[in-house]
Amino acid sequence: MTISKTAEEWEAELGQQLRDLRLRQNINQQQLAEQAGVALNAVKNLESGKGSTVSTMVKVLRALGRSDWLATLAPAVTVSPLQMLKSRKVRQRASRQRRPKT
Question: Locate the HTH cro/C1-type domain: which residues (predicted)?
Answer without folding.
Answer: 18-70
